[in-house]
Specification:
YerB-like fold, 17% helix, 357 residues, alpha+beta, 6 helices, five-stranded antiparallel sheet
Length: 357
Amino acid sequence: MSIEGFRRGALNVFGSKAFRLTAALMVAVLAVTVVWGWSHATPKAVAHPVAVTHPKAARHKSPVLSVPATDPLTGVGAPPGGPVVAVKLDDTAAGRPSLGLDKADVIYIEEAEGGLSRMLAVYASAKPQVEAVRSVRTSDPELLGAYGKIILVASGGGGNALPTLDRSGLWSSINDRGQVGFHRDLSRPAPYNVVADLAQISAAIKAEGVRNVGFTWATHDPRLASAKAAPTVNTRVGSTSVDFVWNAKLGFYIRTIGGQWLLAASGAPVAKPNVLVQFCTVTPDRSDIDVNGNPSMFTTTVGTGRVVLFRNGNRIEGTWSRRSNGARTEFKDPAGKPLLLAPGGTFVVLVRPGAPA
């Protein structure tokens, strides 16, 4: 057969309708086979979808219902942002009315010298201006150790007080050192006129925020049903009477001086729903002697002792314990269960063994 004949024969065969249908069918079968084989093969470079652990996918796969965190210093609302600030404040007639005291979350009342008392007010949920700022004591860093690396605001300090503070790990803002946030109130005599702006101080020092220092909060406590009534609280810090009266309408214990409500500079009563009377060892600090020859007093807040909780117009006996400077204080009833504080903040009155409660 000639080449021309072969060419024409091939065209007749390959160009026929039957051939084209057969070829199309073969191509389709081949395509299906390839796709089926690819889809059933095990990929080596791509992970199987169920093995993917994208963080968002994991969270949606296993949702966890959580209770919102509560402010550990008041038991009310979410934990506040920003640093915690503790301020040493005067607790005598010359320093009253106290500016900003009603905004404190926790108010400690401790012995100073010569039988006088002094306050250490802790602020986290508000950062007001406060007055009258007084000097730090050697025992203050120990008392505040459970709060972490917070700010301690004071106006000077005698004896070993400032060196002890500097070694403690607390941030300090001391008026006598020329730090920001202080001014003098010219309407009052020194040394009862130092004002500290806690918002300005907080902005200048990036200290730690709130943490659990040992308070357990609960709106209701079944132990109150059998607790003794306590419409008033009468105790003593040094030789200073420290008294409170329960106001059921407000739901607070209001501090009183000479039978009268103690009012802050704003006109608001200085009041909290709880009073903790904590019995501690108190010893003289001979490194810090005042102008009258009285030594400053060191209140020990590491160890164990008796405590009485006053809330809802009742009293519950208990014990306190604290293992070390940085540990929180545990407050428990005689059965070993936590004492429950009413949400809203607390007074902690540090008294000597044998003081009335």
